[in-house]
Amino acid sequence: MKTILTNKHISIETRKRDLQCYIEPVLMYRCEAWTISKQIQNKLEATEMWFLRRMLRIPWTAKKTNERVLNEANKRRSLVRTIRKRQATFLDHVMRKTGTFGNNRKV
Questions:
Q1: Are 22 and 1 in contact (CB under 8 A)?
Q2: pTM over 0.70
């Protein structure tokens, strides 16, 4: 995927969609069961920024802030937000399956 994500002849919008379609699902596999600490959240955000910097061909030695990179890519951080949304959806599914707060008794 490196050749596609770093190809300057492909628009940045197409490369962002490829990232979202092919790489993020692998990265977020079974994220519904994760416990996200602050350390893991920082690593996920760093990974997201690493992908954007690679796509825009910004070297790690460049003195660009993450906000500048996000503005250049016309993107917001979404990885952690997507994981939290999936976790909430999964929790809602579990709560519906087992009844209210795990009370699965038949009366």
A1: yes
A2: yes
